[in-house]
């Protein structure tokens, strides 16, 4: 069974975006971002919520097209509808058994792309196996929390911590059962 890896940028105070989805304070280029982009090549499956997928529109992602051309996309939403979707873009109902099926059948670990609420829903169901946090040296004060409104408690073990000259660090944690 493959792991679900929540690989996401986060502020020092635990937000994956500021108010109104603002990510302008995050580091957007440099060694750490290059490492993240390189790491994405290890994934063949990406899961995300509707808001995360639609967030890509403001960066030029056409509706229905893949954000990561080499990955199968599964967008979890009970309300989303897209016309003319690419063959690698699939819309799924919020069904935990579907996520479990992906874990069993994915050829690689699964990239959980952004989305505090969706990540929180997965955490609530015990389905986040690993965290790869791109910790940015900034305090946002408010915004989208790392795990949305989830109140689930969980223990994590630090596996690696890579530091980059621009202040970004990529901290990798495994869930402790």
UniProtKB/TrEMBL annotation:
<dbReference type="InterPro" id="IPR050765">
    <property type="entry name" value="Riboflavin_Biosynth_HTPR"/>
</dbReference>
<dbReference type="InterPro" id="IPR002734">
    <property type="entry name" value="RibDG_C"/>
</dbReference>
<feature type="domain" description="Bacterial bifunctional deaminase-reductase C-terminal">
    <location>
        <begin position="4"/>
        <end position="169"/>
    </location>
</feature>
<dbReference type="Pfam" id="PF01872">
    <property type="entry name" value="RibD_C"/>
</dbReference>
<protein>
    <recommendedName>
        <fullName>Bacterial bifunctional deaminase-reductase C-terminal domain-containing protein</fullName>
    </recommendedName>
</protein>
<dbReference type="GO" id="GO:0008703">
    <property type="term" value="F:5-amino-6-(5-phosphoribosylamino)uracil reductase activity"/>
</dbReference>
<dbReference type="InterPro" id="IPR024072">
    <property type="entry name" value="DHFR-like_dom_sf"/>
</dbReference>
<dbReference type="GO" id="GO:0009231">
    <property type="term" value="P:riboflavin biosynthetic process"/>
</dbReference>
<keyword id="KW-0614">Plasmid</keyword>
């Amino acid at each position: 069974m493959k792991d679900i890896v929540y690989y996401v940028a986060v502020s020092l105070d635990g937000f994956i975006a500021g108010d109104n989805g603002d990510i302008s304070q995050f580091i957007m280029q440099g060694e750490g971002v290059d490492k993240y982009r390189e790491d994405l090549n290890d994934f063949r499956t990406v899961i995300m919520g509707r808001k995360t997928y639609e967030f890509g529109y403001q960066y030029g992602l056409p509706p229905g097209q893949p954000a990561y051309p080499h990955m199968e996309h599964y967008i979890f939403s009970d309300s989303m509808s897209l016309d003319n979707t690419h063959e690698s873009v699939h819309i799924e109902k919020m069904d935990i058994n579907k996520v479990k099926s992906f874990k069993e059948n994915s050829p690689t670990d699964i990239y959980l792309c952004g989305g505090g609420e969706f990540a929180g829903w997965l955490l609530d169901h015990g389905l986040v196996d690993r965290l790869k946090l791109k910790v940015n040296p900034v305090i946002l004060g408010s915004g989208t929390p790392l795990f949305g409104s989830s109140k689930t408690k969980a223990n994590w073990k630090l596996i690696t911590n890579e530091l980059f000259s621009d202040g970004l660090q990529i901290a990798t944690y495994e869930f402790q059962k």
